[in-house]
Every structure is written in structure tokens, then in C-alpha cells.
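Structure first, sequence second, as always.
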């Protein structure tokens, strides 16, 4: 099905708005599949046969117009931008990485990393970790599940209900255990487990790297601190997850600050300057700009407007696939939202606040492969030195 737009609508279909349409579509129109956008129209396909095409077309057009209206006022301010002239046309490294057995796709958006890819993964992570430790961070290790109540307290479920993954044990009932014992042997359905065998969904997979830190600090009085951790994060993606640009399981090197607001701002800006300098050294095309968390439903929209008004979130975007950009890092000033939500105790007149920086190591590395090519021996000298690439290829 093709939906045509007038010029005005077409001009407003910016990538950020298309992303919202793409992410929301399956929740509002389960029978439609977003295909692509061409010059003056947007192309959808029907998953199942549909009776009232005209009505859906009308509803869809009003959904698109409303999304444009809601989000078109968002402005992104670029803080740093770097473009090197050296890079040739970018080539997709995905097929090479698969063929070379450096990555293996286990499932939608879930990968195993091996050989040079895994060595570079640790090299990049170590570089960021060392920088954090240089600034006074101590390293912590977090579990990969959090309490579901944490998703509620932190307002994650208000902003991103579509990405949550809930975890449940089996019911504490020996009949259920027996059922599970024989499940897949007697049943034809080997794909999943029926809901009636599940216990309480009071745990969730960690969707964002700093939640275990706030769980740990709940109702406690913490000293000023900077901590860092490499966290396996998870988010459910209903729409296409192709290659490594959209992942359902990914790794984030997180740096968390608990300090005076002024010091948190200084820390955020110092790390921003450091990554800026590093990427210029490595001859990488990138930008750092203001950002909003991906938004969903009406409450999310309020968060978006608040964030952009206060410059609370910045993103590090690396070029890949010609003119496209992929977010590989974010700088977040939480103000007192999370410390209040988790009831951090303080005797101070103005309690300390929190902030965090997260680098998505998988996507960061993927973007480096896009920009610098599949032969890591040919990468610029300075990145080879920083990531110790000569040692990686020899070992
Ligand atoms: Zn965080």
C-alpha cells in the first residue's frame, strides 16, 4: 500500500520522526509493515489480508500527521562535529565479519563475538575504563537482572514500555515442574513456554546500565563517588533488527557520577572533550549533539520536551552506511530524578545528584569497521597504537 503526501508533510518526515513512526507502527497497526519511504510517499505492506483498506489508510495518515505535529518542534544542537577527508566510500563490514567467523548471529539482534572482533571489543572497553579510572572511578560488577519495581520507580516503563523484557521463574508447584519436564517431549509446541507455568514477573533484564547502581544505593547515604561497569543490557525490538546497528542484547561501558550538580556537569563535559579528542586522533567522522530519549506514548513526549529544554542528554553519533549515523554513546544528566526515585539519603542542604555516560561497545566497534575498513592492519596509526592493534593481529 502506498500513501502519498503533500510537500509539506514530506518535508517534515525527518529521520527522527520516521524512527518514531517505525517504532510505534506495530503497536497501533499490527497488520502493517513499514517498507520504505521514497520521494513523496511512504510505502507499507499488509502482513495479513485486510478488509477495509480505505479506513486504515485514513487512520494511518492521521497517525503520521499527529506524530509529525508532536515531534517536529524538536531541535538537535550539534556541539562537536568532525569530518575527515581521508575516508573513502564506506563499505558494509557485516558479511566479512560473518564469513570470517568474527561474529555469529544467534538470534535477532543477538551476537557472539570472536577472534579479532572480541579482542578489539576488550581493547576499546579497556581504553574507556582506564580513562574513567584515571578520573577516579572504581570498577563494579553488576547482575544482569534488576527488580521490575526498578523499571517502575525509574519511570522506564513510562518512557519505554515497548523495550522491557520481563523475567519469570517457573511456578513453585510440583505439577508445573512435571509439566516442564515433559514439555517439548509430549507437546508439539517447542517454541516457547505457556504463560500458565510462569511465576511472578518481578524481575527484568537490565535495559540500561546504571539501574543496578541505583538499586544498590536505595535508602542509603552514599559518599561522593564515580563508578564504572561493563553491563550486558537488553531491549526488545519489535521492528527490523538487521546487522549490528540495532541489538536486543548489547554491552555498555557505563560511568556513573554521584556528586554536586556542578561537578557532575564538569565530569560530563570532560569525558565529552576526551572522546572528541580521541576520535579526531583516530580520523573518525562523528558528531556530538543534544538528544532525547526515544519516545513512546504521551508521557514520553513530555520527557522529550523537558530533556531538550534543559540540554540534559547528549549523544555521540558515528557515521556509517554513507550519510547515516549511529548512536554509540550518551551523556546523561539525571539531575535529582533517580536519586529521589531511589530515596538516596543525605544530610546536605542540597543533596547530591547523579549523571552517567554509557558507551555501547558493540555498535562503537561496528561503526569503526564501517569507517576504517575490514583490514585492521590498515587502520590509522594512532588508533592502532591506542588499541594495541599490532599485538592483536600477531597473537
Ligand atoms: Zn546510565
Amino acid at each position: 500500500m502506498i500513501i502519498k503526501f503533500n510537500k509539506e508533510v514530506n518535508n517534515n518526515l525527518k529521520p527522527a520522526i520516521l524512527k518514531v513512526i517505525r517504532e510505534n507502527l506495530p503497536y497501533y497497526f499490527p497488520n502493517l509493515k513499514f517498507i520504505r519511504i521514497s520521494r513523496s510517499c511512504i510505502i507499507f505492506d499488509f502482513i495479513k489480508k485486510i478488509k477495509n483498506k480505505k479506513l486504515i489508510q485514513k487512520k494511518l495518515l492521521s497517525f503520521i500527521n499527529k506524530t509529525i505535529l508532536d515531534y517536529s518542534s524538536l531541535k538537535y544542537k550539534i556541539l562537536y562535529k568532525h569530518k575527515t577527508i581521508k575516508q573513502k566510500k564506506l563499505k558494509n563490514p557485516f558479511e566479512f565479519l560473518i564469513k570470517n567467523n568474527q561474529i555469529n548471529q544467534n538470534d535477532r539482534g543477538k551476537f557472539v563475538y570472536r577472534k579479532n572482533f572480541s579482542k578489539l571489543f576488550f581493547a576499546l572497553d579497556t581504553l574507556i575504563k582506564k580513562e574513567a579510572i584515571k578520573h577516579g572511578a572504581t570498577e563494579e560488577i553488576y547482575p544482569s537482572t534488576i527488580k521490575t519495581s526498578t523499571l517502575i520507580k525509574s519511570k522506564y516503563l513510562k518512557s519505554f514500555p515497548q523495550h522491557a523484557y520481563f523475567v519469570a521463574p517457573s511456578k513453585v508447584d510440583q505439577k508445573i515442574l512435571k509439566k516442564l519436564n515433559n514439555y517439548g517431549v509430549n507437546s508439539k509446541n517447542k517454541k516457547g513456554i505457556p504463560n500458565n507455568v510462569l511465576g511472578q514477573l518481578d524481575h527484568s533484564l537490565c535495559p540500561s546500565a546504571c539501574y543496578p547502581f541505583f538499586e544498590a544505593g536505595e535508602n542509603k547515604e552514599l559518599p561522593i563517588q564515580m563508578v564504572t561497569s561493563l553491563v550486558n543490557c537488553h531491549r526488545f525490538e519489535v521492528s527490523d533488527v538487521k546487522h549490528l546497528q540495532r541489538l536486543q542484547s548489547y554491552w555498555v561501558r557505563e560511568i556513573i557520577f554521584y556528586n554536586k550538580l556542578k561537578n557532575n556537569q564538569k565530569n560530563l563535559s570532560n569525558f565529552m572533550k576526551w572522546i572528541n579528542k580521541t576520535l579526531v586522533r583516530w580520523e573518525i567522522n562523528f558528531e556530538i549533539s543534544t538528544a532525547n530519549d526515544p519516545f513512546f506514548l504521551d508521557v514520553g513526549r513530555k520527557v522529550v520536551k523537558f530533556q531538550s529544554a534543559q540540554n540534559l542528554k547528549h549523544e555521540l553519533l558515528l557515521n556509517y552506511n554513507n550519510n547515516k549515523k549511529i548512536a554509540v554513546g550518551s551523556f546523561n544528566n539525571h539531575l535529582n530524578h533517580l536519586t529521589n526515585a531511589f530515596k538516596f539519603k543525605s544530610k546536605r542542604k542540597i543533596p547530591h545528584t547523579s549523571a552517567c555516560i554509557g558507551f555501547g561497545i558493540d555498535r562503537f566497534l561496528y561503526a569503526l569497521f564501517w569507517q576504517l575498513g575490514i583490514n585492521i592492519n590498515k587502520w590509522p596509526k594512532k588508533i592502532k597504537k591506542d588499541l594495541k592493534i599490532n599485538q592483536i593481529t600477531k597473537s
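Margin note: The first helix runs from residue 7 to 12.
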